[in-house]
Amino acid sequence: MELKDLQIYNSLSGEKVKFTPIKEGFVGLYVCGPTVYSNVHLGNCRQFISFDLVYRYLIHIGYKVRYVRNITDVGHLVDDADQGEDKIAKKARLEQLEPMEIVQQYTLDFHKVMDQFNSIPPNIEPTATGHIIEQIEMIQAILDNGFAYESNGSVYFDVEKYNESHPYGELSGRKIEDLISNTRDLDGQEEKRAPLDFALWKNASDEHLMKWPSPWGIGFPGWHLECSAMSTKYLGDEFDIHGGGMDLKFPHHECEIAQGTASNGKSPVRYWMHGNMLTLNGKKMSKSTGNSILPDELFTGENDFMEKPFDAMVVRFFMMQAHYRSTLDFTSDALVAAEKGYEKLAEALKTLNDLKTSGESSLNIQELTGSFYEAMNDDFNAPILVANLFEAVKFINSVKDGTQSISKEDLQLLQKEMTAFVVDILGLKQGKAGGDDKLSPVMDLVLDLRQEARENKDWTTSDKIRDGLATAGIVVKDSKDGTTWN
Question: Whole-angstrom Cα distance, residue 63 to residue 377?
């Protein structure tokens, strides 16, 4: 499949366009990472899994990708304001810990969850606290170019000045006149020249826990600045793809465009990609209303929303059944259906290895596998890919039943492409849902005992083992080829 075939929806232009990287054969990908002051929530997970899919597919079709995903460990104030307390510092104060203890605790939790979801770590995972110098240098460049001003030891971006030569609001489709009319006075606003101006550097009070020296005094960087500084350092003044959730489009990403342009003279990103939100039983996920669920609560079943625990691969597969730009509703019934689908897909992959070949195929396998690429080249359309994969599953089962046929060459092609798209691109680990790597040895022993009972015509024991396993959610199937379990 040629690289030129990939189409991406660009949030900046509001349309699907042909993907043309700045440097041939290379892609710079930046994704806004977590603010590590609490357990990572499912909404975050969906975004990172979506861009894991993007990363995997770009590599598969031949690009060399530098994937950068930051860790926000300073500067993100409560309510995304320019005044108040840092979220991490607030958590540290409440728990009587050092801020970096909070950072370490929740960064490790984040990595653990993403590992459970089988997400590939980024090539570079920079932290905001590790790039204070770069942020100070970018602020100075913006000041030197006349798009910022100092006030009482803080530095603010001058939005109206910037808008005189560049369109502030182009990503979110907002007009500066409307933004100005909708602003209201906030505490600390007297430092600003205008309500829309946002902090690049904030003067820190004596009791503020996280602060650093700067040319303007002791303080800390603004939240919007960190992504601009780190993406520039590792991907350059202009790079290919910037991703994140739709909730970041304004003001965070809008401010990134302004900061990059004000410091370097060019818009920093060629393609903006934004993932949509999750809902739970038809309602917005919200910790404050109690309508929320953490990944570990899904995996263990310790929640009030799902009828049973679900394996991380089932949850990942479920997320792939909606396009990254569409909303996705978590329900118990939907996850149960996804679990069945995942098991059918995993079983088909195993069946592929045992298919018998014939002289020619009864289906055009090149056309079938080509549909996998067509789906992903259409703005990484995972749900269409999944539908096409299940067309392949139907065919595989038909060949197994003897109602259709496949040639040796086509079988090799189908094995290669099915494995590539299910395992390497969708990122679904092979095997049964529920962590059967640990369960398989136990099941081998149990089924051996059952087989002995069957051979001894001890049908009572045989049925008792089968029924007991069924109660535990494990289905045993007997056939002329032997016994299998799911």
Answer: 14
